[in-house]
Amino acid sequence: MHLSGIGDLRNLSKDVNGCRLIADSFINHLENTPNALNPWVCTNQDVDLLTLNLFENKNKPLSGLILGVKDVIATEEFPTKMGSGENWENPNMGFDARIVSEAKNLGAVIGGKTKSSEFAVHKETNVVNPHYHGRTSGTSSSGSAAAVANGSVCISLATQTAGSIARPASYCSVLAMKPTFGDYPRTGILKTTDEFDTVGFFGKSLSHIAEFYFATRLKGLNYPVNEKRRSIKEFNSFILAVGDNFDRASNQLRNKAKQFALKYIDKFSTINFPLALFEIRDIHSKIYKDNLSYYFQQEIKDNRVSSEFSSFVESKQDTDQKKVKDHLKQLQNWREQFNDFVGDSLIISLGANSSAPLKDPTYDFDMNLLITAAGYSQIVVPNLIKDEDGKNVSISFSARKGFDENLINFLFSNLLLD
Amino acid sequence: MPETQEGQSLDEMGFCNVCRSSEDKMKIDWHQRRLRLEVVLNRAKSHHKSDTYDCLIPISGGKDSMYQLHVLVREYGMRPLAVTFSHNWYSAIGMYNLFNCLEVFDIDHIMFTPRRKKVNALAKKSLEVIGDACWHCHAGVGAFPLKIAKDYGIKLVIWGESISESSSRGTYSKPLFKFDQDYFLKVSAKVPFKEMVTPDMDERDLKTFESLNADQYKQAEIEGIHLGDFIYWDEERQTEFIKREYDWRETNVEGTYKRYKSAECIMPGVHDFANYLKRGYGRASFHASADVRAGIVTRQEAFETLTPLDSVVPKALKYFEEITGVNQQEFIETVSRLKHPLLTNTSLEINQNDSEVNAPSLFFEDLKRWTSEN
To answer: In this complex, do A225 and B294 lie within 8 Å of one another by their Cβ atoms?
Structure first.
């Protein structure tokens, strides 16, 4: 496997001059980015300190890597405002989330916090799309997407509850991975929905993503479920999941996705999922709103949320313990059906329904919701097809839980990504 | 966590106290708490009556002990007296971890080990009275360090994990107990030493397990704190840290799939199997719940793959039979008499242990074998 991405940084960080080069590059990039385009909430702008941090962490697996961290992930050295400005009562959390701690142990240095939607939900951020100014960069994880897309950092941490990594990746033309649910603990990360919140990241290249993933994912005997579901194998079939049932994309875009798939895969089948599988839209919505109204009840009560957030949450139906249990049971049944249907296939779908739309779009249903609800592994690859206006749209590759390595291998060998 | 957990209450969403406490942690200013900790530690450093020690740290050699020592000795420069009340059920790994602590941090240490026959008799009595085999440990780890603190004039005693972390008997925003001389009696031992008297063991024999009384505690001016109330407690992150930095070691632990909890003892499987018989869940469910909260597994995966371990009879139950004469059937019947009311009409599945892993053995037995081999 070709893994040069972080390896180059690691080599560079072996001496102090190399560390200074990396630090200078990061800070020059920040200084040369107009404020209006800045995807960061706050950053480390002290070149000497950054150089020192990099040098102190030399000769480790992630040495030389400056990391962006979404503002809903706790960090000891930066405030964490959960995308809510001054509305989060304790921004000085005083500890690192587990994923941050692990990345730091492995040699990464935190560059800063990236902008998030309010409490990682739907409200549009002010992050400007680095490629298509004036268009949306996506919602929840848009700051992390833009920070990689504009070249500030090589890896930026993010979260996805429906499509919060896949859509910004597609809109900002950047590579992203949402690993299998459970590969990263959420300790120290804002919780919005127990069953769906998943940690992921954007990366400069597939090599960066692969190396970061293999270094930081949970492993070992204390995680038997995670270890058991991992297996290296060829995909036994391919599912092209584009079409009326899966998205609201234009026919032209769907045809391009099909042509793309045909070019690389000679044995794929276009399959119509049973309609019952699309019940996940309602199930996801119910569980999502149940959880949001629960976890943010104090913020809502104290008027520390925006009107958009409030009205989104308040549109939920009344919930009691029995209904919550029913919703979870429905989710469990849906997952069983979905797993039976997909088996060991590779799912190819659109990363988003269109290229980056204008700001404040209405988000239509797309395949990302199913992939997240199933806890599947997903990698979104940009710049593979273009829409009728010549703007980039991503393709999403996904597979059942534990098939992360299969996905990475597939993309290395079939798309010849570096 | 299940609704049969002590102190548990489920809210309108069906979420338990432990889940709520876990979310509380995200809204606490841990930076501020650290500053409060510094005040407490600086006070202990500046006006201790003990010429020698700033604080007393009760340690077992488990993961929390090692991490406590790291924080207090390495980060804050405290000069502690480490105190161990031995349950006398140490595993070889446990003894290695304990002495590794002492070597790594170069600290003074006092250890008390109750005699074998006393441990055996109390294990049997404990089963009848509180429904697990471990009263002597619950009571001893509370009482003995306080006595030593009094004797040495040490004002500050620092335990590890907060009761708000996972016990359901309090949350970080609503902690249940203020620390006093009876803290461990209320939390775990449940009955005072006088109620453990047997025909073979009089009160004098059980004085070891008597805590300070209220006057003694007050006069000794002891302050007891849990480190977990001052720093963000992340058990697995801390365990990874001490493994990497200090070569702290895990081992197979009966009754669960995590290899770090109670690694120092050979009997956690018996303790947790008893809990399963009383409350319908054991250590595997406890750990699975934590993994669900952390998003490591889904509820479905937890129920399918992890929680079935609760019902497996631990191999250490054979050792329990050897030391008490209570066989498996009697053990099950005795503990089942203390079953949670919600489980009265529930028949709990019990599965015999077909694992190829050996039964855990006492450190002393291992040591005897090693020394005769060499």
So the answer is: no
Flag if A324 and B13 touch (Cβ within 8 Å).
yes
DSSP collapsed to 3 states, B35-63 = HHHHHHHHHHHHHCCCCCCCEEEECCCCH
Mutate to test the interface with B, among A80, A95, A283 (most CBs of B within 10 A): A95
**Model pLDDT for residues B116-155, shown as the tens digit of each residue:** 999 999 999 999 999 999 999 999 999 999 999 999 999 9
Residues B305, A225 contacting (CB under 8 angstroms): yes
Chain B residues touching residue A218 (CB < 8 angstroms): 296
Beta-bridged to residue B109, according to DSSP, are B82
What stretches in chain B show pLDDT beneath 70?
48-51, 168, 176-177, 374
pLDDT digits (tens, 9 = 90+) for A36-84: 778 999 999 999 999 999 999 999 999 999 999 999 999 999 999 999 9
Nearest to B186 by CA among B203, B198, B169: B169
State the Cα–Cα distance between residues B107 and B96, nearest whole angstrom. Answer: 15
Q: How far is CA B32 from the centre of its chain?
A: 28
User: ipTM value of the model?
Assistant: 0.93
Strands (E), B137-232: 156-159, 223-226
pLDDT digits (tens, 9 = 90+) for A350-372: 999 889 988 888 777 889 999 99
Asked if the C-beta of A219 comes within 8 angstroms of chain B's C-beta atoms, the answer is no
**In one letter, which amino acid is A256?**
K
If residue A111 lies in a helix (H) or strand (E), which one and from where to where?
Answer: strand A109-114
